[in-house]
Here is the input.
Amino acid sequence: MLSRYTKTVKGPPYPGARASEFVETLQFNPAAIVRDALIIVGFLIFTAIVWPFNSVPTGSRGVVTQFGRIVGIENEGLALLWPWQKLTLFSIRAEAATIEDASGATSDTQPVDVSLTVRYSISPDKVSEVFEKYSHDGDLSSYVQTATQEIFKAVTAKYIATDLISKRSVVSADINQALTEKLSRYGAQVINIDMRNFKFSDSYMAAINEKTTQEQLRQAADNKLKTVESEQKQKVAVAEAEAAAVRATADGEAYATLKNAQADAEALRVKNAAIGQSPQVLELQRIQVEQTKAEKWDGKLPEAIYAGAPIPFLQVGK
Here is the structure.
């Protein structure tokens, strides 16, 4: 191998000169330098080609191909490959597909639009299939958008327009289930679906607003009627209570009068029976009456006495 430089030694300038006076001249060889540079570059290129160490980042899988054919799937971390093999990174992270103004029609033929965002990811065990058939990087947004449009049309056709609003959670669940089954064919799994504002035609929305207004007015009238009915029931209850009280009072008074009359009749019967058995009882009663009159007399004689009128306590004939 040629040296990187050549050394030329000039002899003594004159006979008898000392060796320290010799002059060494160094001359570089350009061809040797170029050759060494090419060797280094070739070595680096060879090393890069045959370098077996590769890495698969978090949230990805490494698809190993050999002459275009899939020969393996590498998990996250270090991957060792032969020089004739190629590693392609494939994302299994969550991806989002946005569908603006997906259109459909309800069972009562009302057109409806909605905007949706579908979040999905590739199933790790389906990476090889998806890489081979659909995508080399895990992006299935075009498939998801098309499938979502189709599913939305099918689901909305099962509901009337008002149910799309009142049963929004049920509609969302139906779309989620149907889309999950649909995307599983592409090796994807649905994470969640965000469904934003249903949009109906202007005429239908005006009818909805009018119906809502009428319903509110009807509810207000019903509430007022219920209030009036409640007040009337309260008045009837109060009147019935008062009538019952009056009736009870009257019944009590009548009962007391009856009892008093019965007592008086019984006393009279007893008295008559006593008089019939002993005439002295009648005389005793007369004396008691006269005594009562005497106790109540104020001691004054009447100023005018009519013929035949009795004078108190003067019993001349007796």
Remarks:
- The domain at 95-200 is CATH 3.30.479.30 (Tetrahydropterin Synthase; Chain A).
